[in-house]
UniProtKB/TrEMBL annotation:
GO biological process, one term: oxoacid metabolic process
Keyword DNA repair belongs to the record: no
Name of the featured protein: Aconitase/3-isopropylmalate dehydratase large subunit, alpha/beta/alpha
Residues in Aconitase/3-isopropylmalate dehydratase large subunit alpha/beta/alpha domain copies: 78-347, 351-446
Source domain of life: Eukaryota
Alphabetically ordered keywords of this record: Iron, Iron-sulfur, Lyase, Metal-binding
GO molecular function: iron-sulfur cluster binding; lyase activity; metal ion binding
Coiled-coil segments on the chain, per record: none
Pfam hit, one: Aconitase
Upper taxonomic lineage: Eukaryota, Viridiplantae, Streptophyta, Embryophyta, Tracheophyta
Length: 564
């Protein structure tokens, strides 16, 4: 197994002050990283698929097949044929608009059976603009005769909508759209979730999506690959979320920027498909282009009753070149959390026992799958205590919602997750959707409309989305003790006056207030307030959580919360 940089250190259990080791990167520059060394394993020799002139990684092989090239190397730019394209109610309307503009109002998509349209983000709301987005998806899908449009019409009862599924990344897998060896592109950064099936899956922007809709192709640069070998028996108290937080904590949120993250090892082989999806789901939080897990018997069994389409799995060659390799002994790891405000701000869960929280949220494409709710139910069952803070439950899909009410929890004497949650005092499981993960309109279920300290089973802990009105889940009285918020920082004035930022703008500023004449922002880097004039009869443009929204002066003048 060839690797440009392999990390070898003595065995050491992870602590908040992990053991440091030195290694040489490809250019010979010495760096320091933190890691947990796995026990020595026998040499692995993955199977080779197809005609190979030079050793290639899984990602290189998939893109080579999709671009009809005999071989590819990192850095190559190739036109890739797309097997599946997915969009949702957040980015779908923009992608559709670009498609219509560039290809014509009467143009047809390149393949109606390869386009998957899944409304899931801002669904159960009375917000007219959010509802309009779903209408746009519906009209487009009817015009184009899209085969896989998972529509919802009756918002009062999701069960009355058999076509509606829920969170797109979970639904893609459950409906059989994820297949080994294929290329899946979606207008959502967490499209990388599908890499759990041994395919290349990544998120793209609206402009790229509009082009894909019209041509079925996209120009992609082949990413270099990082390999993560996870070995050892996984303790019962760990989930894949702990594993990916460990990895992100090691390499940082920029450690895999435009790189493929390949996961393998005995631990990965023991994970079910939902846990593998969690592992790949968060590669984007490390900057990864895509994440990928080699397909195996677990993958094939999951797909048996979900798709009849043929697929061809690929595997990295034994001598494939990896930019770096990281090895972990999972049996030595402990439960982890990511403290505000970055996924790589890793800490042992036991070290955070004295931190007060105001609420708990279990859901999202990361933590809203059946396996996640079973794990939560086991915790409540073992504890035998009532929850002390509001605990919100948001199933990812209709199937997950049904599992909560029908699957019995091992060791519970026949109780279902729903029964255990009810006994613990949790909120009733909500309608399946992304719900408050990305914020949403003010009537979105579990959305925070005031600053609170929240424990989230989601993928992000940034001051955007659900927590766009929060700067820390530490008690506010402790903010002055944090290195990021000194007394001299003008931002402290916001908390003293209980004036919280409305949202984080993509340009590194926080929107504080607005009226019919000006917008007041706070510059996070320069630590100062700025004002921007709004010229008469013009709209002001914001970029919020990667989603563009246009705010009319009428809305601004009313002083209403901006809806995305």
């Amino acid at each position: 197994m060839a690797s440009s940089s392999s990390k070898n250190v003595s065995l050491s259990a992870f602590t908040s002050t992990s053991q440091l080791c030195s290694y040489k990167c490809k250019k010979g520059v010495s760096k320091e990283i933190m890691m947990v060394m796995a026990p020595q394993q026998s040499e692995r020799k993955p199977a080779t698929t197809g005609s190979v002139k030079i050793p290639m990684t899984m990602t290189e092989k998939i893109l080579a097949r999709a671009s009809e090239k005999p071989q590819l190397r990192p850095g190559d730019n190739v036109w890739v044929n797309v097997d599946v394209f997915m969009t949702n109610d957040i980015s779908g309307p923009g992608s559709i608009g670009i498609f219509n503009k560039e290809f014509g109002e009467n143009a047809k998509v390149w393949d109606r059976e390869k386009v998957v349209v899944i409304p899931d983000h801002y669904i159960f709301t009375t917000d007219e603009r959010a509802n309009r987005n779903v209408d746009i998806l519906r009209d487009f899908s009817m015009e184009q005769n899209i085969k896989y449009f998972y529509d919802i019409k009756d918002l009062s009862n999701f069960k009355a909508n058999p076509d509606y599924k829920g969170v797109c990344h979970v639904a893609l897998a459950q409906e059989g759209h994820c297949r080994p060896g294929e290329v899946l592109l979606g207008t959502d950064s967490h499209t990388c979730t599908a890499g759990a099936f041994g395919q290349f899956a990544t998120g793209i922007g609206n402009t790229e999506a509009g082009f894909v809709l019209g041509t079925g192709k996209l120009l992609l640069k082949v990413p270099p690959s990082l390999r993560f070998v996870l070995d050892g028996e996984m303790p019962d108290y760990l989930l894949a979320k702990d594993l990916i937080l460990q990895i992100i904590g090691e390499i940082s949120v920029a450690g895999a920027t435009y790189k493929s993250m390949e996961f393998m090892g005995t631990t990965v082989e023991s994970l079910n498909m939902e846990e593998r999806m969690t592992l790949c789901n968060m590669v984007i939080e490390a900057g990864g282009k895509n994440g990928v897990v080699p397909a195996d018997s677990t993958t094939f069994k999951y797909l048996e009753d979900k798709t009849s389409l043929p697929y061809e799995p690929v595997f990295s060659d034994a001598q494939a070149s990896f930019l770096s390799e990281f090895r972990f002994d999972v049996s030595k790891l402990e439960p982890l959390v990511a403290k505000p405000h970055s996924p790589d701000n890793r800490a042992l869960a036991r070290e955070c026992k004295d931190i007060r929280i105001d609420r708990v949220y279990i859901g999202s494409c990361t933590g809203g799958k059946t396996e996640d709710f079973l794990a939560a139910a086991k915790v409540f069952l073992t504890s035998g205590k009532k929850v002390k803070v509001p605990t919100f439950l948001v199933p990812g899909t209709q199937k997950v919602w049904m599992d909560i009410y029908t699957l019995t929890v091992p060791g519970s004497g026949g109780k279902t997750c729903s029964q255990i949650f009810e006994e613990a005092g949790c909120d009733t499981p909500a309608s399946p959707s992304c719900a408050a993960c990305m914020g949403g309109p003010r009537d979105t279920y579990a959305r925070m409309n005031e600053a609170q300290a929240s424990f989230l089973q989601t993928m992000m802990n940034l001051p955007t989305g659900m927590i766009m009105e929060i700067l820390s889940w530490l008690p506010l009285k402790s903010l002055s003790k944090c290195s990021h918020f000194q007394h001299s920082d003008p931002l402290m004035l916001l908390f003293k006056k209980h004036c919280y930022p409305l949202m984080l703008l993509k340009n590194g500023r926080m929107l504080l207030s607005y009226n019919d004449k000006e917008v007041v922002c706070y510059n996070l880097k320069r630590k100062r307030f700025t004002k921007t004039d709004i010229y008469a009869k013009k709209d002001y443009f914001f970029l919020v959580a990667y989603t563009p929204c246009f705010v009319s002066l009428k809305d601004v003048a009313k002083g209403e919360q901006i809806s995305r």
